[in-house]
Amino acid sequence: MPPKKQNSKRITLHDVAAEAGVSIQTVSHVMTGNPTVKLPEATRERVREAAKKVGYTPNRHAQAIRSGKTNVIGIWMPVDRPIVSYIRMLQLISREAKRTGHELMIVPLDRESGLSDQAIAPNMWPVDGIIAMDSGAAVEVYRETPEGKTTPVVVIGYELVSNGDAVAWNVTESMKLATERLIASGSRSIAYITMDWQVRDFPYERRRAGYVQAMEAAGLPIQIVVVDEESRAGSTRAVKAHIAEHGIPDAFVGMTDMLAMGAVRAVTTSGKRVPEDCQVMGYGSHPDAEDFEVPMSTLRSPIGEVIPRAWEKLIKRIQDPALPSELETYAMEFIKRDSTR
Q1: pTM
Q2: Residues ≥6 apart with Cβ < 8 Å to 305
Q3: CA 215 vs CA 62, 182, 223: distances in Å
Q4: Which of 12, 246, 263, 266 is most buried by a 10 A CB count?
Q5: pLDDT digits (tens, 9 = 90+) for 94-140
Q6: Sheet architecture: strand order including 153-156
């Protein structure tokens, strides 16, 4: 027997409504995530289950034409670096999206396409708003395109753009204070470990700026250790080369916990002890930092506060694009562990 032909009939709101036993209007409110209509959660769940059962897929273009809204939020995030914080942020953003009935569209960025002075605007489907992680340069370029002129944006970082807000943590001041702690504990020779592209492309990078400010204020020499591979192994090689040329300093400060952990390896394999002979401090509260061979002191970003606030500001801006642009900053937390005295 010849195979049965697949049913090519497009599933509509009418099919979902019939399956759920509710009106088409109710289905529309649930599928579009209309926040102004109060419906019992049981009804919303019944509609969502009915949509899954009949295979309903929302037509985003049709929704956008009818209402001017897609109910989709674009998430711009760097993907060219092994940064656990971005995954943490994405988890919290996903939680907020579920709470408000939105869907997410991930837009990957790297230094060549969106994070440098040569940034280009990424191609993407229409969205109601954008949360941009450390990608203000790409947002500025996006603002020059017809579709990007009016899209509400919240940047996780310090870049404040038109019709947008920024939510960040106080990186420079936090790193300055952390470096001052090392100085106060008796360290006079302190080296800062950073990536080669940071030195090359970001001369005013905030973490390095905080370290430099603290050292200059104390009248101490600046030492920069440049790493060409963002990994523990890459950091270990660079720090070992620095030690071979300059000796072991009183302390190392890492641009990230990963680079700091590489410094611990370099110091201990050189026959010295952490923190007795050399203190080491990281940045970012990497999951491995707490139970590393020498538990790492670090600066923890207030992601749990920043992401819900960023989402709240974006939803408000979508509802009222005339709101004035705002920059909010949060303090970082110094986590004292065994790698510092």
Answers
A1: 0.79
A2: 330
A3: 58, 10, 10
A4: 263
A5: 999 999 989 999 988 876 554 445 556 676 778 999 999 988 778 88
A6: 103-109, 72-78, 129-133, 153-156, 164-169, 327-330
Question: Mind listing the pLDDT tens digit for each residue in 292-326?
Answer: 999 999 999 999 999 999 999 999 999 998 999 99
Helix H or strand E encompassing 21: none
Q: Could you tell me the maximum CA-CA distance found in the chain, to the nearest angstrom?
A: 88
DSSP secondary structure code for residue 83 in this structure: -
- The answer to whether 124 and 139 have CB atoms below 8 angstroms apart is no
> What are 23-79's pLDDT values in tens digits?
988 988 887 666 677 888 889 899 989 988 988 877 665 565 455 678 899 999 888
What CA–CA distance (Å, rounded) separates 163 from 153?
7
